[in-house]
Specification:
The chain is of the alpha/beta class. The protein has helices spanning 2-21, 37-55, 68-76, 87-96, 147-161, 165-168, 178-187, 211-217, 248-264, 266-273, 289-298, and strands at residues 26-31, 59-64, 82-84, 101-108, 115-123, 138-141, 171-174, 192-197, 226-231, 235-236, 240-243, 279-282.
């Protein structure tokens, strides 16, 4: 067993060294699941068009995963170079291999904050007014690796309902990503569900950014049809991560491009960040330590 472990470690180190020495010819972007694939590809098309010249690569490829774990495994396996993650998704990678990716940037909301919220929504015509109305009902989560769609509600909801989540609700399940979850709530397959929102701006607009705002902008959600029944404490905005073994030069070129994006291409910035945001700011692992600790204690790796 020890011999196999040592051989595996040597193989990982050899791969990392080779990757570091290799010229970057293709930049591979992972895209989290849960939204219509055509919409996800459309949101990142501007980066496909612009990044070859910025990074000096032959092409930029998009890899829309079916779920969060598809991107997580791609980053762990070194087959992706960049992705936007939720904090819990990053925590999963960090707990598996702390050296796989580097958190580089995160978004700054229009009010200057660096966080967002998990919000629980239900259909307005159901007549639910408070969490008490949901006792014994069906609760939907977005994805097992979602911060706002699973980890944070799992950890913080008990303080609001006075019981563990699985004891308070008749059943829980996953909607297959944030957009799909809200659609399942609208269909009546869940009585309520947790998704993400900036919490800045007006509820009637879907707030300034987040899943609700994206759905409103796409014309697939009317905020008059839903109510918000619960909001979490502030969650650290998810990181934009890059493969650690990318060259320092490539990392810097990419970071410079991203930092300037709100001014050079506001439409691209809005598409990539899911709504109205102020800009990007640099972050490191320390910013996500509370989420890493929470995931380790609650879900594990």
């Amino acid at each position: 067993m020890l011999k196999k472990t040592l051989l595996a470690a040597v193989a990982v180190l050899a791969f990392a060294g080779a990757a570091a020495a290799e010229d970057l010819k293709e930049f591979r972007i992972g895209i989290l699941g849960g939204e219509n694939e055509a919409d996800r590809l459309k949101s990142y098309q501007c980066m496909v068009d612009q990044l070859p010249a910025v990074l000096g690569v032959e092409k930029v490829s998009l890899f829309p995963a079916a779920d969060y774990d598809g991107v997580v495994q791609g980053l762990l396996g070194g087959t992706l170079d960049f992705a936007e993650l939720g904090a819990s998704g990053f925590a999963k990678i960090y707990l598996a291999n702390a050296n796989a990716v580097e958190p580089m940037l995160t978004t700054v909301q229009t009010d200057g904050s660096m966080g967002y919220y998990s919000v629980m929504v239900a259909r307005k015509d159901k007549g639910y007014k408070t969490l008490a109305d949901l006792k014994g009902k069906k609760l939907g989560f977005a994805d097992p690796d979602s911060t706002s769609g699973y980890l944070v509600p799992l950890v913080t909801l008990p303080g609001s309902i006075g019981a563990p989540v699985k004891e308070y609700f008749s059943s829980t399940g996953f909607g297959g990503g944030h957009e799909n979850l809200v659609l399942e709530v609208l269909k009546g397959n869940f009585d309520a569900g947790t998704t993400w929102a900036s919490g800045v701006g007006e509820f009637k607009d879907g707030y300034t950014s987040g899943n609700l705002r994206k759905m409103v902008d796409k014309g697939i959600l009317n905020m008059d049809d839903v109510v918000e029944l619960w909001r979490s404490p502030l969650i650290p905005n998810g990181p934009y991560v890059v493969r650690t073994t990318m060259s320092a030069e490539s990392k810097q070129k990419f970071k410079d491009y991203m930092m300037k994006l709100p001014e050079t291409d506001p439409a691209c910035f809005k598409a990539v960040t899911a709504g109205e945001n102020k800009g990007f700011t640099e972050v490191n692992v320390d910013f996500y330590k509370p989420i890493i600790d929470a995931r380790k204690a609650t879900i594990g790796g």
